[in-house]
């Protein structure tokens, strides 16, 4: 048992180092001047060169791209939760004609990689813009962050409903019956009884969908061809420009701008997820 525990701790420590070392190196590199990159790559910077972040935010427009990603990701999460939570609750708890067919479609949607259908989505939106060219000469569906959020939400609905449905089914029906006896309607039962109990599952889908939306590159590159880029597309442009200029400090500062929000949110979500699971285990 002691040997097994030691092996587990060693493995976890090794994995943590594999993650922490590259992230730490990027953080240190983002504070170096242009001249310091020609020395040892592992040497610490002589000072904190915060100008790299200022240049990345303002000159390279990473601040604008960051805000676009925040808006797109937040709107996508709101849309997918508004649709998926009620749908998952209905599929899990109510008998209706065609429920098996609906579940089969949701299962089939799990096997569709959105990156494989991005071109048909793009062509469909282009056709819609052509149909509305008189009302919207500059286009409405292409280069619209709100439409990108809608595409994110629509393509992640099968996974979200699948996970939430499984969790709703694991909750005993006695909680709903008790709330109904107290006079609560279906909507109130779902929002005040079932949804708080399903917090671990909701937290999980928020985490996975956030990572998918924030880290997406192909869909954002295709549907936002104008200036309103997301951070992933903006980072590619920054990498191309700074490699030519040999200004790697600004490049790594842009990488930190992309990485840090993900690390912060993951740490917060992970803590709340564990707390929610522990609370659910005590109640059960």
Question: What does this 3D model show about the protein?
Answer:
This protein is an all-alpha fold and 284 residues long. It has a domain at 61-245: MetI-like (MetI-like fold), CATH 1.10.3720. 75% of the residues lie in helices and 0% in strands. It has helices spanning 2-29, 51-59, 62-93, 99-109, 118-131, 145-170, 174-181, 186-197, 199-215, 218-223, 231-245, 248-283. α3 runs antiparallel to α11 (231-245) and α6 runs antiparallel to α9 (199-215). It is globular, with a radius of gyration of 23 Å. The model is unreliable at 278-284 (pLDDT under 50).
- CATH topology group of the domain at 61-245: MetI-like fold
Tell me the total number of β-strands: 0
Mean pLDDT: 84
Shape: globular
Distance between the termini: 29 Å
- Give Rg in angstroms: 23 Å
Beta-strand proportion: under 5%
Percent in helix:
over 70%
Low-pLDDT ranges: 278-284
At the fourth CATH level, what is the homologous superfamily of the domain at 61-245?
MetI-like
Named CATH architecture of the domain at 61-245: Orthogonal Bundle
Give a quick account of the main beta sheet: strands, pairing sense, barrel closure. Answer: none
Based on helices, strands and strand pairing, what is the structural class? mainly alpha
Question: How are the SSEs ordered, and which strands pair?
Answer:
Layout: H1 2-29, H2 51-59, H3 62-93, H4 99-109, H5 118-131, H6 145-170, H7 174-181, H8 186-197, H9 199-215, H10 218-223, H11 231-245, H12 248-283
């Amino acid at each position: 048992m002691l040997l097994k525990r030691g092996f587990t701790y060693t493995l976890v420590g090794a994995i943590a180092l594999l993650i922490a070392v590259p992230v730490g190196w990027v953080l240190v590199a983002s504070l170096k001047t242009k001249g310091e990159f020609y020395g040892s790559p592992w040497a610490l910077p002589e000072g904190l060169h915060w100008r790299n972040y200022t240049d990345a935010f303002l000159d390279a427009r990473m601040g604008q791209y960051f805000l676009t990603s925040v808006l797109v990701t937040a709107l996508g999460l709101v849309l997918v939760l508004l649709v998926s939570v009620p749908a998952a609750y209905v599929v899990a708890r109510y008998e209706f004609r065609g429920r098996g067919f609906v579940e089969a479609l949701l299962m089939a949607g799990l096997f569709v990689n959105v990156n494989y259908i991005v071109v048909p989505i793009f062509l469909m939106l282009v056709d819609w813009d052509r149909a509305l060219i008189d009302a919207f000469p500059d286009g409405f569906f292409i280069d619209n962050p709100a439409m990108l959020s809608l595409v994110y939400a629509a393509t992640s609905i099968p996974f979200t409903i699948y996970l939430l449905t499984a969790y709703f089914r694991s909750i005993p029906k006695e909680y709903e019956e008790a709330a109904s006896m107290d006079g609560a309607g279906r909507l109130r039962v779902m929002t005040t009884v079932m949804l708080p109990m399903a917090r671990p599952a909701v937290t999980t889908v928020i985490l996975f969908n956030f990572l998918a939306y924030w880290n997406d590159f192909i869909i954002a590159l295709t549907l936002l061809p104008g200036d309103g880029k997301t951070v992933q597309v903006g980072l590619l442009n920054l990498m191309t420009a700074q490699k030519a200029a040999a200004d790697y400090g600004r490049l790594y500062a842009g990488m930190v701008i992309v990485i840090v929000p993900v690390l912060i949110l993951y740490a917060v979500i992970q803590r709340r997820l564990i707390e929610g699971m522990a609370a659910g285990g005590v109640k059960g």
